[in-house]
């Protein structure tokens, strides 16, 4: 039996990694075609040789069209949707999907951030994909509105919109299911100034809550990816 085509995976920094999502995709038989347009990598004109498209997060904003690669990615996401390929956006990737679909991406009205582990809650439409409550890793200062054509799947406290689906094949999640303990160590060590901002948890709690909640996120992740890829 032949292996499926690779998953076209977009990251936004030289140090970015697909983390746990990459591990789970490998376990499911998928390879990763990793691209970083922010560093000059091209994006394919079509996805005939790819099973799906996966766009991760980054410190930039989905609104920052002065960055040429942001405009390029927004246009490319439209092509992915037109082609009907499965699309998954994580954090920035979800915010870009929301923008492509006509929704607003903006800061919290009280300049709040979510940095660390926070609970999300399944909506009625998302109860087949999410447990009633799941503690997930967050690192963001902007959030997205739900596009008029999309369905809210999970909600949160400070940022009410946490996951949505467009059609049957495109998903956006505000949180970071790819996170690992090594990634937490790197992220919190690289940007300690972020950990004193409103809404951020101190560094030690990131590790403590990862030990408490990481396994539940991992149990949720594999069936979620299978549902996404089967679309």
TrEMBL record:
The keyword rRNA-binding does not apply. Keywords: Glutamine amidotransferase. PROSITE patterns: GATASE_TYPE_1 (PS51273). Residues 47-180 form the Glutamine amidotransferase domain. One of its GO terms (cellular component) is cytosol. It comes from the Bacteria. InterPro entries: ChyE-like, Class_I_gatase-like, GATASE. CDD domains: GATase1_1 (cd01741). Pfam families: GATase. PANTHER family: GLUTAMINE AMIDOTRANSFERASE YLR126C-RELATED. This is Glutamine amidotransferase. It comes from Vasconcelosia minhoensis LEGE 07310.
């Amino acid at each position: 039996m032949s292996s499926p085509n690779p998953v076209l995976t977009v990251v936004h920094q030289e140090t970015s990694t697909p983390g746990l999502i990459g591990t789970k995709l490998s376990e499911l038989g998928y390879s990763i075609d990793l691209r970083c347009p922010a560093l000059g990598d091209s994006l394919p004109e079509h996805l005939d040789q790819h099973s799906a498209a996966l766009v991760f997060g980054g410190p930039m904003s989905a609104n920052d069209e002065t960055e040429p690669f942001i405009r390029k990615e927004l246009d490319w996401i439209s092509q992915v949707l037109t082609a009907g390929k499965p699309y998954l956006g994580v954090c920035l990737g979800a915010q870009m999907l929301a923008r492509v679909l006509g929704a607003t991406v903006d800061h919290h009205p009280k300049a709040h951030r979510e940095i660390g582990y926070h609970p999300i809650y399944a909506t009625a439409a998302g109860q087949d994909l999410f447990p009633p409550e799941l503690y997930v890793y967050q690192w963001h200062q902007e959030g997205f509105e739900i596009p008029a054509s999309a369905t809210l799947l999970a909600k949160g406290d400070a940022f009410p919109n946490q996951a949505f689906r467009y059609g049957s094949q495109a998903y956006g999640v505000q949180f970071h299911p790819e996170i690992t303990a090594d990634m937490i160590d790197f992220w919190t060590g690289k940007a300690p100034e972020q950990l004193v901002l409103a809404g951020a948890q101190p560094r030690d709690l990131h590790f403590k809550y990862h030990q408490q909640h990481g396994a539940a996120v991992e149990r949720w992740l594999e069936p979620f990816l299978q549902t996404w890829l089967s679309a």
